[in-house]
Amino acid sequence: MSSANQALVVRNLKKGYPKVEALKGVDLTLPQGEIWGLLGPNGSGKSTLLKCIVGLVNPDGGEIRIHGNARSRRTKAQIAFVPEIENLYRWM
């Protein structure tokens, strides 16, 4: 598959925290025009992976490319992310 057809490419992504290695060399390629789900048990790194992709967390190593471009302010504007924590105003 050519890079022009890849919406997301993640290569050898690593992220660690003081007591846990959350991502251990994750590889993922998602073609444009498809919808995918990310499944796994609690603590498997799903949220950490998504937060790295959208730029909320910086990975310790590896590469993230969105539509063939390295993660940047421009590529972040092409991604939507709904966090798992509810952030509503008190009046809501």
At a glance:
The chain has 92 residues and is an alpha+beta fold.
Descriptive account of the structure:
The protein is of the alpha+beta class. The chain has one domain: Rossmann fold, CATH 3.40.50.300. It has a 4-stranded antiparallel beta sheet with strand order 2-1-3-4, with helices on one face. A hairpin with a 2-residue loop joins strand 1 and strand 2. The protein is globular, with a radius of gyration of 14 Å. The N and C termini lie far apart (46 Å). The model has no long low-confidence stretch (mean pLDDT 88).
The overall number of domains is 1
Distance between the termini: 46 Å
Task: Give the low-pLDDT segments.
Answer: none
CATH architecture: 3-Layer(aba) Sandwich
User: Helix count?
Assistant: 2
Helix/strand layout:
Elements (H helix, E strand, L loop, with lengths): L5 E12 L2 E12 L14 H9 L6 E6 L2 E2 L2 H4 L16
Notable features of this structure?
2 helices; 14% helix; single chain; Rossmann fold; 92 residues; alpha+beta; 4 strands
